[in-house]
Amino acid sequence: MFRASPLDGRVLVEIKQPTAAEGGLALIDQIAAQREHLLLQAGLSSDKLLAGSVGVPAAVHPRTRRLSRIPNIRGIEELDFSGILTRKFDMPVSVENDVNLAALGEHWRGHRASSMVFLALGTGIGMGVILDGKLFRGARGAAGEISALPIGGDAFAQDSLESGALENAVSGKAMMARYLGSGGRPGTKLTGLFVVPPSSAPAPMLDEAGRLIALAILSVCAVIDPEKVVLGGSIGIRPELLARTTHHLARCMAVPPSCQISALGNRAGALGAVRAARLLLADEYISACETS
């Protein structure tokens, strides 16, 4: 998704397009092309752009800005991605982990709390961490990579090393495989797995997913102690999953954190991108003042 917004986060124009499959420099070219389309549709000249922000499914090193842990987009780990975009567009460009952006957006315009985590669950699982009102990235930008937690599988197995034990247990792909393996009807859509008649007990697959996510939240709380846990992503926003998760949290925690579905839905990441651009502009201004 590509979006042009003023600094208050409103949407001027939006374009949805799949990420360039070639990755690498082709992704840079795609961003440049969509930037021109956004300007054209919004009726703006390029001099009206103050900053840009890009979300990527990767760990972004807080000092070098290099990308790592990015199996789904080829050829960009070797690039100075942030630097190339900044030079190409002649303006500051923030490159940030996509779930971190969702956490920033939720903290800015959604379920705000001084210390909170945004847990995104869909095709994979990831987490953005806000501590004392600020995004926490960790030493190598990998804070929140909870897919690797040793929950739901053997952390020493090869597939866990590649994609993470927890992700292999609770991702959308894993849920569907568990459903079909237990005799489920082929052709059922993922959303159909969450439909629970009012008089029925939760499906074992749904209950197990809630139990594993509760264990993940327990682990996070033991280290971070967040005031609030916000769930997002195509699976994370399901109220049926939240109900099973909170049920199991009450069984394993004396005082569970507040758990809520994202107030922003699929807008969390986009609003987080605006927030990241605002923070980058503030840093640029402060640096300019210090050197003047």
Give the CATH topology of the largest domain. Nucleotidyltransferase, domain 5
Global outline: globular
Biggest sheet architecture: 5 strands, mixed
CATH-defined architecture of the largest domain: 2-Layer Sandwich
Query: Averaged pLDDT, please?
Result: 91
Low-confidence stretches: none
How do the strands of the widest beta sheet line up side by side? 9-8-7-10-11
Structure description:
It contains 10 helices and 11 strands. With 292 residues, the protein is α/β, with parallel strands linked by helices. A 5-stranded mixed β-sheet has the order 9-8-7-10-11, with helices on both faces. Strands 1-2 form a two-stranded antiparallel sheet. It has a two-stranded parallel ribbon with strand order 3-6. The protein is globular and about 60 Å long. The protein starts with a strand and ends with a helix. It comes from Paracoccus aestuarii. This is ROK family protein. Belongs to the ROK (NagC/XylR) family. InterPro entries: ATPase_NBD, ROK.
Q: Descriptors for this entry?
A:
about 290 residues, alpha/beta, Nucleotidyltransferase, domain 5, five-stranded mixed sheet, two-stranded antiparallel ribbon, 10 helices, about 40% helix
